[in-house]
Task: structure prediction
Amino acid sequence: MTQSYRLSAGGRIDRTRTLTFSFDGKLYLGHPGDTLASALLANGVHLVGRSFKYHRPRGILTAGGEEPNALVGVGRDDAHFTPNLRATQVELYDGLTSESQNRAPSLERDYGAINDVFWRFFPAGFYYKTFMWPRKAWTKFFEPRIREMAGLGRSPQTPDAARYAQRFAHCDVLVVGAGPAGLAAALAAAKTGARVILCDEQSEAGGSLLAEPDAQIDGLPAAEWLKTALAQFVAYPQVKLLTRTTAFGYFPHNMIGLAQALTDHEGERNDAQPRGRLWQVRAKRVVIAAGAIERPLVFPDNDRPGIMLAEAARLYLERYGVLPGRRALIFTAHDGAYRTALALQRAGCAIAGIVDLRPNAGGPWVAAAQKAGLAIYPASTIATTDGRLRITGATVKPIAGGSGQRLSCDTLLMSGGFTPSVHLFSQSRGKLVFDATLDAFLPGAPAEACSVAGSAAGVAALAEVMASGAEAGAEAAGGSAFSYQVTNAPEAQGGFIGAVPYHGDPGSVRAFLDYQNDVTAKDIALAMREGMKSVEHVKRFTTNGMATDQGKLSNMNALGIMSPVLGKPVPAIGTTTFRMPYTPVPFGYFAGYARGELFDPERHTAIHGWAEAQGAVFEDVSLWKRARYFPRGSEDMHKAVARECRAVRNGVGIFDASTLGKIEVVGPDAAEFLNRMYINAWTKLQPGKLRYGILLREDGFVIDDGVIGRITDTRFHVTTTTGGAARVLTMMEDYLQTEFPELNVWLTSTTEQYAVIAVQGPMARKVVAPLITGADISAEALPHMSMVECKIAGVPARLFRVSFTGELGFEINVPADYGRAVWEALMASGKPYDITPYGTETMHVLRAEKGYIIVGQETDGTVTPDDVGYAGMIGKAKPDFVGKRALARKAFAEQTNRKQLVGLLTDDPALVLDEGAHIVADPAQPKPMTMLGHITSSYWSETLGRSVALALLRDGRARTGEQLYVPLATGNARVSVVAPVFYDPEGTRLNG
Amino acid sequence: MDNLAETTSLSRLFALSGQAGDRHCRPVTGGARFSLRVPQASLGAAGEALGLDLTGPINRAVSAGQRTALRLGPDEWLLLLAETDAATVAASLSQRLTDGLYSLADISHRQTGIALEGVAVTDILNGGCPLDFDPAAFPVGMATRTIFFKAEIVLWRQDLTRFHMEVWRSFAPYVWSLLANVGCEYAD
Result:
C-alpha cells in the first residue's frame, strides 16, 4: 500500500489527505487531485487491462480521454457501476472501487491469452472468412461464442441508481477547452461583455498550463498566471466556466452537446443530486480549443505495460508527482520527449537513452538533453521490446541497419508528435486540410459559425497558442485581441506517421496501431493486399479506428502506412469522418429526467380519481389512462364486462368519454370549412343538431370520425377520436392555412375544456332529467342526434343526445373542473336505477353489437367510406371535400372486390374468434391459401348470449349468407356472413 | 354562445388541486380564459371592447386591471380574466364585433396556471424549455407558446424572476413533477 513512485513534493495533488481505493480487490493509497491512473502509477501499477482480441497485458498509455488500454469498471455496487471508464479520467475519491476488464480469472493469469499464442490465426477480417463453414455453425456456435467474447466490460444488471439532469443554454461564444488557447479566447470574448460558456473535460481549467513548470506568461509563472486568469472570470457574471464537461457532439446550427459530470468525483454520492447534466448549448459562435493528442510510434511489441506516451509521462510527473518508472527509455520523433527525459532525470529517474528516428534532431530541447549528458541514439529505431507483464528492455538498432543493442528499462516513453484534435470541427462538417509539413489534418473552411484555436489548429509554441486563442475569442465576440508576453517556452518540433522501420520479418511481428481494437501494422498491410484502397474500406476490414476512441491515436499512423504502399499522398487517401460522441457518454445523460412516470406525460381525465378509487382497471389510449372495466369483488374482466353490458342494455350505465378530441370551429365560414373537410354535408344541419362525420385523407381513406354538433350558425363542436385529436386539429389547421386561407373560421382545441360523461341505457333520461335546468330533454324536445345548452347540477353544459351503445343516451359536456362533481351528482341521481359505471371494454362490446366502427380497428388506413358501408353519408352535391377526388379515381371506381365491413357469426356460439384472424373459403385449399379478409373486432356478446365478430371481407356485402372459414390455432371455425348489425337493427332503442 | 365559466353551487376541482407548491412553484387556480382570434381589420374594435391595446407586437402581454391578453400569434390571443368577468368580456366583444369575424372559445377549464418565482426560475425552465431567457431575448412582458419537456405550455414573464405558466390540465401533473424534479437541483 505504499506509493513508492510518488515524489515527495510537486504536482497539484493534496498530500495532506490520503485516500484509499481498490483495484481488482486490492487496496491502494492516493491523494485528492489524483486520477485513478495517476494513483495506480504512484503505486507502481502499470498492468491495468487485457486487450480486446489477443488478451495481451496492457498498461496505462496516456493521461487523457484518448486512453485505449486503461478501461475500467467503477462503482461501489451494481446500481452505481459504470463500465469502460478511462482510468485516466476517473477522479480519485476515498473508497473508490474499480476493476479491470476482459480478463478471467485475473489480469495476471487470463485464459483469453490463448488468443495471443494463436494470434497468427486471427488476422484482420478473419471472421469474414473463417466462420463461413459449416453454414449452420454460424448461428449455433460461432456467433454466440463471438458475442460472448466481444465487447469490453460488464453491463450492470440493476437499474441505474443515479439521477441525470438536462439543461438548455444559449451563449454568444462557446469556448471548448480551457487550456491556454481556450482561456485566452474566453477572456477576449468576455471583455466585450459577451455571454461566454467555457467548458473543459478536466477537473480543473488550465489544460497544458497544469503541467507547465518553466514558462512565464506576462511575467508570472504559468500556474500563477492561470490563477489570475480564472480570477478574472469572476468579474464577468456572464461567463460560465464548466469543468468536468466534455463537448461531445457538434450538431447543426451551432447546437453543442456538453456532458457535465457532477458527482462522479465525490465518492459515495448522494443519489438525490444528479450524477451528470447534459447541456444543449445554442452558441452564436464556437471557438474550438481542444488541443492536440500525442501519437504513439508503431514498432514491434509497442504495447507492453510500462510503455507510455512521453507527454503523458511528463504530465504524471508535473501534475501528480508520479514517476512512470525508475529507468526510462525514450523513443521519439519529436522534441517533446526530450523535455520529458530532462524532467524525469531531474526528478531522479534514470534515462536509459533517447532513441530518435530523426538523423539530425536539433533545437533547444535536444541541446539541453545533450548538455545534461543523456545518451542519444539518432537515426535509430526500436526493433523489439521484452517483458511479459511489464516492459524489461528494448532492442535499439540504427535505421541504416547493423547490429542491435538491448537497453534495459522499466518504462518506455514514446512520441510520434501531436495530432490536432479536429474531432468537433469535423463533426460540424468543417473541411479538413492536410498540412504536409506537420503531417496533420488541420481545420479548413468551417461549415458552422466556428473557429479553431491553439494546438487544435496546428499551432505549437505557447506564445502562438495564446495569441491564436485571443484572436479567435476577440473575433467571435467582435472585440479586439490583447497579446501575452510568453517567455521560456520554446517550441517543440518533429513528428512521424506510419510504422517505424524495424528490420524484421513484417509477418512475424505485431506493431500495434489501434490498441483498443488490437489492430496492427500488418493488418493494414493485409487489407491493402486484399485490395482495399479506400481508408473507409481499410477501416472496416481491420476495425482500425472503430473502437470508442475513434482512432484518436491510430488514424494518422494508418494513413502513414497506407500512403507509401498505395503510392499516394495522405490527402489523396483521405481521412475517416469523426462522429459524436468525442468520448463515450453514459446513456443516463441522454435519458435525463425521462424515466419511470416522467418518461411520457400520463394524461388523466377529471374523473380519473373517482375511477381509481372504485378500483377501475385502466388501459393506455395514446397518452391517456382510460378506465377499461370496473371489477366488483373477485370479478375478472369477462364477468365485469358482462355485468356492465347488462346494466347498459337493461338499466343505465355511466361512462367517462372525456378523452374524445374536441375542436371548437367558429366563424362565419365554419359550415363551409367543415363541408370541405368532412365527407358529409353540413350546410343544412340546423343549430341544435348533431351529425356523425367522417374525415378522409387526401387519398380517400378514412382517418377519423366523430359526432359534430352545431351550436349556432357560426359555431360547431367537433369531436374526434381520442388518439386522433392532435392529428385532426393539425390537419385542419394545415388545410385552413395553406388551402383555404380565404375562409373566416378559427379552430381551438377544447378537448380538455370539457369533461364528457356518457349516460346510456333505457333509464338514462330518468337519471339525467332531474339535474337539468333550462332545457326540456324529453324524447320529443330533444330527439336522437340533437343537442342543447343547459345547466346540469347548476353547471353549464352542452348536452348531446347521442349514443355509441345503441341505447337511449346522453353525452354531457361540462367544464372539466366540474367534471368530477357532476359525475358524482349523476351517480347519486342514478342510484335508484342501479347506475353502473362501465369502461372502454364494455363500450367496445356494445358498439360492436350495433356495428359501429372504431377508426383504427375497423379501418387501417386503406378503408374507404364505402368499404365500411358509409357511402351514403357522402354529401353528393358538394363540389369538393378532402379525399373526394381520390374516391373518384378509376382504380376505386372499377375495383369490384374491395374488402367490405360484414358481420360474422360462428357456428359455435361460444367460440370468440381471434381478432386479426384470416378468413378463407376453403380451409383444405393447398397453400398458399386465398385470404378473403380478416376479423377486425370479436367479442362475447352478453346481450345476445353468443359471440359476434366484425370483419373486412372481399366483396363482403355480396357474400351475405355465405359460409366461410376462419383458421384458428384450435382448428377451422365455420362462420356465416351477416349484416354488421347484431342488435336492434331498426334502431328503435335509440329513440326511446 | 358557448358555456362561459360562471359561479355555480359546485366548486372547481383543478388539475393541481391539493398541490402545496414549493419554494419555486405554486399552482394558480381559478380564473377564466378565452382563446380569442381576431383578424387584423378588427384589432382596434376588439381592443376597445376589451379595454386592451391588441395592436402591440406578437409575443407580448398587455394588461389592464384583471384583464390580460397574451398575443401568441398574428391573430391569436390568450385572455386571462377574473371568473366573474368572463360573461362581460364575451358580451362586449359580440356587441362591438357585429360582423362576427372573430372567434372566442372558452378554455377556462382546458388549462391551469403555475406561478414560478426566484432567481433559479430560468435555470429550472431551461431544464425542459429550449428558449433563451436572457432578458435581452425574453424581456419582462414577453409571452409565448413553447414546450416544457414533452408538454406544450404558454409562458409569460411577469418580472425578471417571476413567470406565469399555462398548461393543459392533463399535462399539469407531469409538468408539476418535472418542475419539482429540476427545481431540487437549485438552492434558491
Observations:
- Chain B touches chain A through 56 residues (CB under 8 Å).
- Residues 97 and 146 of chain B are 30 Å apart (CA to CA).
